[in-house]
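3.2 Worked example (two chains)
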Amino acid sequence: MLSKAQTMEAIERMYTMFPEAHGELRSRTPFQLLIAVILSAQATDVSVNKATPALFAAYPTPAALAEAPLEDVIEKIRTIGLYRNKAKNIKACSAMLLTDFAGEVPKTREELVRLPGVGRKTANVVLGDAFGIPAIAVDTHVERVSKRLRICKLKASVLEVEETLMRKVPRDLWVKTHHTMIFFGRYHCLARNPKCAICPLLDLCQDGKERMKKAQVKK
C-alpha cells in the first residue's frame, strides 16, 4: 500500500499530466447537473451530453420536469442506457425537490441521497461540482486507479476507497483529485490497455510493474 506521502506524490504527477481536469457533464444550474449525473450512471458522459440539451431545453427546472409526460422524457433520453428507469427517477427526483426542498437542490449528502436515483457517488459529484463542497466521488476510474496504485486494498469496497482517499488527500484537494483521477483513468490508465510503458507513475505502481514484467517475459 502506498503511504500518504507516496499517494500525494502519485496524485501530484497526475495533476501535472492533466492540469485542466474537470467534470465533463454539461449543465447550467445545480438542478441540471443533478439530473445529468443521475443519467450518467452506467453510461458515458458523451452519451449524456448528447441527450441533455433537448431535455433541458424542454424541461429546464424541477417544476417543468416533474410535470413532463413520462413518454416524452423517455423519448428524449432514449439513447442513454437504462433510459426508462432513469426517466422515472428524474421525474420523481424533480417532484421531491419541489415537495421537500422548495425546488432547490440540497447542499448536504444526507439530503441528496434521499432523492430518487441519487446514491453516494452522485451526491458527492453534485456537492463538489455544483457547490464546491469537498467530496470525492468514486467512479469506476477512481476505483481502478486507486487499486492499481495500491492507494487502497484490492478488495476495498467503493466506500472504503473513498474513505482511504479522504484520509490520504487534504480536504481542499478532494474535488481536484476526484476529477484528475478520472481523467487519468479515462485517458491514460485505461481498463484494458493501460499505458504503463510511458506512465510517469510506473515507479509507484505495483500493478504497472507487474504488467511490465509479464510483457518482458512474453518477448
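3.2.1 Second chain
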Amino acid sequence: MSNYRKGSHSVFSIHLPLVWITKYRKKILSGDIAQRARSLIRGICEKHQVEIRKGHIAPDHIHLFVSISPSLAVSKLMQQLKGRTAHAMINEFPLLRRQYWGRHMWARGYFCCSSGNVTDEVIKQYIAQQEDADETFRIEGE
C-alpha cells in the first residue's frame, strides 16, 4: 500500500499526465522564464497537495505527471496552473508582455488522461527521455 496516498476519509492513487502549450506555440519557455514557471508550478501544486511525480518544460509546452486527491477537479487544477503562472510571468517579464499583449500566455486547452491504459513507468520513461538536471521536474536545455 506504499503507492497509495491518504486523505482524512480516503485512500487513493490518482495519477494523471497533464500537457499544455504556449499560445501560438511560441518557444518562450527557457532560461529565467522556465525557471520561474517551474517554481510557480511547484508552489501551486504544493498549495493544492498535488504531488509532482515527473515534469518537463520544453520551449513551447509543459508536461506534468501528477498524483492528485479525488477532492480536486482536474479542471480547477489546470485553471490554477495556467492562470496563476500566466498572470505572474506576464507581470514579471517584459518580453512576455510584448509577446502576449492580450494577457493570454497559454493556448486554450490542455491534455489529460488517466494512466490506467499505460503504466506509470512508461509515462515516467517518456518524460525522462527528454533529458534532465532536476530529476523530478526539469527544464529542456538546462
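3.3 Remarks
The first helix runs from residue 31 to 47.
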